[in-house]
Hints:
By secondary structure, this protein is an alpha/beta fold. Helices cover 45% and strands 20% of the residues. It is built from 13 helices and 13 strands.
Amino acid sequence: MLRYASTMLAAVTLGIVTIFAQPVHAQTTEKPLVLKGQSTHPASSNFHLIFKLWAETVEKMTAGRLKIETLPAGAIVPPFEVFDATSKNVLDVGMGPFGYILGRNTATIPMSHGPLYGMDGSDYWAWYYDGGGMKLLDEFYRDVLKLNVVGFPIPTDYPQGMGWFKKEINSLADLKGMKYRIYGIGAETYGRLGVSVVTIPGGEIVPAMERGVIEGAEWINCEEDKKLGLHQVAKHYYTPGMHEPVTGGQLMINGDVWKKLTPDLQEIIKVASVYATTQRNFAFNRETAHACQELIKMGVQMHRTPDEILKNFLDEWEKIQTEHAAKNPFYRKVIDSQKAYAEQIVPFKLSWFPPYNFAGEYYWKNKIYLTKK
């Protein structure tokens, strides 16, 4: 148990009593609780860095009472097994995106990524904490996925680019038949549009491009893609994508482990997840801006994705989404909740917020580096 003590000194000056408190440093003889954790991503990825900062923050906030190991992808289990490993307590803690278990239930899509009815990454996070998303997340884990975990949303790496190609892409016709690495709704939608989609983990993308197994690939953005070395195997980079305005990762605690934690530790875990996500995403925008400039200096040509591709993507996705909602009641429940929230937030921001490009282009129009045809 932590013990606290203080000594009180009283001084009388001009008839006024002033109390000074001298705190004695908290001490503990307790052995720290150590939790074993792993993410689905490489150690250098922003997603894993959030995981690491979260653990460091928890340790500081608990004065060392709780320590969490944050191992990268593959250290204990393969990336696609992190959800099950956390549920079964092979891992105490896991970090992974719902897209890695997309085949379990189509509701993983609106719970994690997608067009989101015009919402951006910040709006999506707000939906969780302000629009009812957390209750749906608990229900999803417990009643739908049947996973013994407690989860917290970790939105990051947003927005994402359409990806890397060895040749220029001027229209949807240029994508059709191409072997293109993408995951989640991107794979489903582009597949319906005639693209030969492939889903492989991040660490396998560059080797697959080198061997010609795939001809194009999306990962995240300039910073993360540069870490993978995608600029070494392709020179044409297209952005934005429409498939992931946000990547909705999940921080998971095994349900039995969670129940054994005291209420203060549970609250620290939640609050630290918000802090770590916010801090890393702030830094990540700056790091990504710098990385884009570095890639251009290395000979990468950055193109604005043709509107025709983005429009076709949204048109096809709405058809797919209607089909999913008709077959899956929980899917319908989630998108109804998101639509209700987006209906308030998006028109408000479109009406009230100054357009980002208005003042932005006033000051920096000559600094825009994407080519557009």
